[in-house]
Give the backbone structure.
Amino acid sequence: MILVRRGTLAVMLVIAAALGVGLGSWGASAVDLVKQPQAPVPPTPAVAPVQNTPLQAGTQAPVMPAAMPVPQGSFAKVAEAVGPAVVNINTFARGGGGRTPIEEFFGDEFLRRFFGGEPDRQPQQRSLGSGVIVDPSGICLTNAHVVERATDIEVVTAEGKKHKAKIVGLDKRTDLAVLRLQGGAPYPSAVLGDSDKIKVGDWVLAIGSPFGLQQTVTAGIISAKGRSIGQGPFDDFLQTDAAINPGNSGGPLVNMSGEIVGINSAILSRSGGNVGIGFSIPSNMAKRIYTELATKGKITRGWMGVSIQELTPELAKGFGLKEPRGVLIADVVKDSPADRAGLTSGDVLMEFDGKRVDTPQDLQKIVAATAPGKGVPVRVWRDKGERMLEIKLGETPEETAQLAESGGNKGKSLLGLDTRPITPEIQRQLNLRTPDGVIVARVEDESAAAEAGLQRGDVVREVNRQRIRNMQDFERATQGIKPGDRVTMLLQRGPQPLYVAFTVARG
């Protein structure tokens, strides 16, 4: 399994398979997860405009019938209604090539004197994806991974017209981004439907620009709902066998009423091409994210301030439970909402706001969807008995946005590391004298950390001479690190301490 970074044009991004939430479950899956923003960008041909369903007065999207029949196996009416709202997205990064080693060594003045002119700093096209306009004013939904590093964004409509676009906001945790097209309003737009109503076996169409082929329509069914593919704590994907390929990312998955039920995001594949297993972000999740990004430019989520893990049958027995029901709290952040409510390490959280919690992902989703400041009752198992507590949620702090209720870490994308708290079980498995530090769960291939020799299972004890006792210490020590900075770490590998140093790669 090869990890390829998103920013590369020559290759697609292949995401490592899901890290297990439970103890010691860090094995790779049998297939690779491929996010789909990048594809060669051919010249954009002029596409004949397609007549969309007329707009009703006062509405912001085409008026669709309650259900579109599929006469003689044709999906033409659905494609004609939605197609004009689907766009091609090209992203650019200025100075993407950076300075060459010769330029770095001699400097621009030397090059001007001996070779004349200025070094070429033209914008470099980085990737291609898809999007869908959901408001006639020019609001467009796509994937965060399509546009997150772009300095310039060009949107090509179904008519072949090109428009500049600006990022209104993006949310990496759900892989959604909101763009606003510049000029040309009103635009044809599509309706965000109710993804909760879609059923396994229902027909759907995927529309986008696979391999740069704009306005490509593929058909399939909903293969499954509620899929978790290891992309984060909010995985809740629709699975489809409608063909999704590189360049489809950010395009819509629509039902037979012409409503958007998903935003296409990833596929499972060994080759990088479609094998009939694609994943879309449900439209109901997209609605919530879109509304908040469009109004505030950011997402606010409820926060407890705990690190959690799966309650295995063995651990359940150890805590006096007959069955593994609930989520084990491994650590509580000092002065966090959980700490103030009286939650402690070793508690098993069984219910949150009256809702049963069986897995870490259940708790992550419920907490994140709860408004900060709201007081909610929680049922916990402690000392072989149940207790009721009330917790007033806080807002997820920026510096711990990827840590809260997940055990993930902010330094993952920058340092090339995925770290986890050291739980009592991990401490026993690795025969560690103390639980101080964080454990490396994964090292991104070709990252600076990988080249420096960091390995899965290493325990990080220090970062730049700062002692690391827990995930919070690691977050504080790494939050100020920038591309180009030198990082020195003290590791424990087995019984031996080991220092490593590396320079954080520049974007």
About this structure: The CA atoms of residues 19 and 442 lie 8 Å apart.
